[in-house]
């Protein structure tokens, strides 16, 4: 997606602490801490305005980061995000599934086998992305970072059910994968789509888009759709920074 977005705007991506090429952080990986990290990244690129794009757990992170600096945010694109309107996230079954998946993935990473689970996704991405993923995405340190984040993420997100970060009149587009898969059965997928529609409706300029050919990993299966939704926001932004 980055080269495509880079054709019409300055496109900035970063690795959160403990992922990719960023060193681990000794501090807890709370939502607030991760949102503050993102705002520090943006501080290096001028006043904006910025369009923030977040996938999965990145959705709440960009929402919180944006709420702290609404003056420089031109819009949000949330791609199959975790959302507090989805009750299923807070049940015992989901938490057990998450803990089990982390334990299995850590074992596979230590054995050098985690990449096998993502073979199909690896096949569908450009060669340079595939090389980066092979080098950076399947190390035990990545799963340890995920485990550290998971210790508080759902509990923090639950507190938003009593009051979400205020995004004012910032345009928000929410993209949902239409299909079950990638760890989501049909019931979970239906609840996620419903939560995404609700989140889009909370914005006076909200838009809900369904990626018909995707499950959770929309950036891999329908990257062009995400690029189009980013581009839709740009005419309303005088000087897009990201």
Looking at this protein, list some descriptive labels.
globular, 4 strands, 242 residues, 48% helix, alpha/beta
Structure description:
With 242 residues, the chain is an alpha/beta fold. It is built from 12 helices and 4 strands, in the order H-H-E-H-E-H-H-H-H-H-H-E-H-E-H-H. The protein has a single domain, classed as Alpha/Beta hydrolase fold, catalytic domain (Rossmann fold), CATH 3.40.50. 48% of the residues lie in helices and 10% in strands. A 4-stranded parallel β-sheet has the order 1-2-3-4, sandwiched between helices. Strand 1, helix 3 (58-68) and strand 2 (73-79) form a beta-alpha-beta unit. The radius of gyration is 17 Å and the shape is globular. 31% of the residues are buried. Mean pLDDT is 93; it is low at 237-242.
Brief summary of the model shown:
The chain has 242 residues and is an alpha/beta fold. The chain is built from twelve helices and four strands.
Which helices and strands occur, and which strands form pairs?
Elements: H1 2-5, H2 31-43, E1 50-55, H3 58-68, E2 73-79, H4 92-110, H5 114-117, H6 119-124, H7 127-136, H8 140-150, H9 153-159, E3 172-177, H10 186-201, E4 206-211, H11 218-221, H12 223-233
Parallel strand pairs: 1-2, 2-3, 3-4
Helix pairs in contact: 2-3, 4-8
> Strand tally, please?
4
Distance between the termini: 13 Å
Output the radius of gyration.
17 Å
Query: In total, how many domains does the architecture comprise?
Result: 1
Would you identify the CATH H-level superfamily?
Alpha/Beta hydrolase fold, catalytic domain
Order of helices and strands: HHEHEHHHHHHEHEHH
CATH architecture: 3-Layer(aba) Sandwich
Q: The biggest beta sheet, please?
A: 4 strands, parallel
Please count the helical segments.
12
Strand order of the largest sheet: 1-2-3-4
User: Strand percentage, roughly?
Assistant: 5-15%
Give the low-confidence spans. Answer: 237-242
- Reported by name, the CATH topology is Rossmann fold
CATH class: Alpha Beta
Mean pLDDT: 93
Shape field:
globular
**Structural class of the secondary structure composition?**
alpha/beta
Question: Helical percent range?
Answer: 40-55%
């Amino acid at each position: 997606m980055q080269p495509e977005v880079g054709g019409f705007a300055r496109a900035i991506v970063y690795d959160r602490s403990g992922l990719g090429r960023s060193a681990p952080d000794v501090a807890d990986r709370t939502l607030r801490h991760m949102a503050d990290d993102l705002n520090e990244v943006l501080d290096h690129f001028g006043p904006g305005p910025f369009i923030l794009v977040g996938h999965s757990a990145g959705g709440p992170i960009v929402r919180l980061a944006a709420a702290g600096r609404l003056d420089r945010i031109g819009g949000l694109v949330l791609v199959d995000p975790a959302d507090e309107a989805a009750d299923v996230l807070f049940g015992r079954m989901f938490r057990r599934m998450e803990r089990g998946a982390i334990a299995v993935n850590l074992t596979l990473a230590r054995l050098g086998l985690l990449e096998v689970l993502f073979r199909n996704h690896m096949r569908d991405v450009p060669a340079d992305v595939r090389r980066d993923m092979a080098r950076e995405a399947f190390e035990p340190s990545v799963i340890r970072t995920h485990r550290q984040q998971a210790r508080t993420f759902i509990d923090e997100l639950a507190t938003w059910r009593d009051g979400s970060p205020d995004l004012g009149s910032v345009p928000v587009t929410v993209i949902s994968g239409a299909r079950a898969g990638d760890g989501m059965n049909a019931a979970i997928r239906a609840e996620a789509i419903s939560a995404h529609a609700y989140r889009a409706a909370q914005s006076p300029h909200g838009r809900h888009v369904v990626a018909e050919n995707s499950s959770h990993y929309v950036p891999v299966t329908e990257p062009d759709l995400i690029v189009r939704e980013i581009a839709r926001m740009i005419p309303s932004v005088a000087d897009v920074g990201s």
